[in-house]
Amino acid sequence: MRGRGQRFRGGDTRLREGLMTEHGPGGFTEWVVPAVAGREAAVTRLMALDGRGELGSAHVRLTAAALDVSERTVWNWLSVARREGRLAARTPERAVVSADFRERLAVWGGNVAAVHRELLAEAVKAGVADSVPSLRTLQRAVRLDLSAGERAGLKGGEAARRRYDVYGKRPRTHRNACWEGDHKRIPVRVDLEGSAVCPWVTWFIDVATKVIVGVAVTPHQPARDAVLAALRTGISRRDPYGPFGGLPGVVRVDRGKEFLCKTVERALGAFAVPVDDLPAYKPYRKGTIEALNGAVEEMLLVSLPGYTHRARPAQAYRPDPVEDLLSYPDFVKVLLNWVTCWNTEHQPAGLADGLTPLAAWEADPAPVEDVAEESAYGGPPGSGLPPQVHAGVPGTRATAGRSPRSRGHRPAARGRAGHPATRGIPSGTAVGEPLDQPARPDHPQGLR
After folding, report:
1. How far is it, in rounded angstroms, from Cα 348 to Cα 326?
2. What is the three-class DSSP state of 157?
3. DSSP state, 188?
């Protein structure tokens, strides 16, 4: 403990129950008790001295200096104590939210003015109109007694209240300990053979390192082939898919039927990878992928032509003409280039020392469990490999890959973000086709 008069680094510092302040040009420090907390103790002591006839101006002056108040204030405290017997400051009375008032608020959807009108009408009918507090008093009571989440829940229901909840954070794990997957409808209209469509992206992200390990882009609502394509590019680490990948410990999804179908379950079950089926309408249970969904819109999509959430002038209902939109292959190239930038250049929040996902992946000492390429690709039917492994994988014609066509959909565009060395693949190249063949706009796009 430092002695009196010694300087403390960092300016004013609160220790124990005291407040240390600096006075005078010499910077001497004095231990004082805050006036609010010390009034009761000081007045008790001064009243005891007064009862014995020992109270003097020196005592009052010393107390005033210690509590950083004027001597007149201390004399007023003593006067109140002699007259009312009150040693501390008076606590002002205020209206509080009762159980009945809370029920009325729930009925009126959190409308305090409506509750006040109802109470006032009942009081006037009973002849006691003066017993109802003012509207401002009731609004102040609601603001002080109800939390922001409770007030939002009264107006918007349980979903609105949950936006103010404080959620726990899962402990940090190692790479490939857990992946999170999700679909996102891209709010950008693109040109697909003369028609304007909003594509979808299916991707998986490693929770520990924030690496986007697998991506599949489709011009229609994704099906199981998009999930299998994203998983295929996520698991494989062969060029051009490296260095990310390997088998995850668990895959976390949110009850999407494409993620929970038998084909995907068998494909992951063949490698003993469980699927964690999270409860519906709880995006905070997989916050990493949800944060990625928001980041791509803020960092990329808002700047693209055909962005559907862009602010428009009043009465402007005409969308951008198809001629001004990006073509579907060009959009796939832009999106996958952004994914590469995310993995190799961006510094997401949550990684230590401002690391990029690539740096965090390389710094993680956890071993990566690779899969033999024959098992990952699955080979054609009749190769002896389980059909669920190669269902929907590029280079095969399994039923999972044909199911979207039977429903009138186009096949999934497959791709994966990763190392800059993979930029040598043309953005319009279809996975599973020779590189010298031109790609169709609705065919799987390959770039990692």
Report:
1. 28
2. coil
3. B
Residue pair 47/81 in contact by the 8 Å Cβ criterion: yes
What is the token pair recorded at 227? 């999930």
Interatomic CA distance for residues 408 and 399, integer angstroms:
15
Q: What is the pLDDT of residues 118-143, one digit of tens each?
A: 999 999 999 888 889 999 999 999 99
pLDDT band at 94; cut points 50, 70, 90: confident
pLDDT at 397 over 60: no
Global confidence as pTM: 0.60
Residue 314, both tokens: 């009043």
Residue identified by tokens 């899962």 is 170
Q: How far apart are CA 43 and CA 159, in angstroms?
A: 51
Q: Are 415 and 446 in contact (CB under 8 A)?
A: yes
**CB 32 within 8 Å of CB 68:** yes
Of 202, 209, 203, the residue nearest 177 (C-alpha) = 209
- Residue 148 · residue 160 · CB < 8 Å: no
Six-digit token pair at 78?
Answer: 């003593």
Distance separating alpha carbons of residues 24 and 11, to the nearest angstrom: 14
Q: Which residues of 273-306 are buried (b: 16+ CB within 10 A; e: fewer)?
A: bebeebeeeeeebbebbbbbbebbbeebbeebeb
Task: Note whether 266 and 273 are within 8 A (CB).
Answer: no
Domains of the chain: 13-84 (no CATH), 99-162 (no CATH), 179-311+318-424 (3.30.420.10)
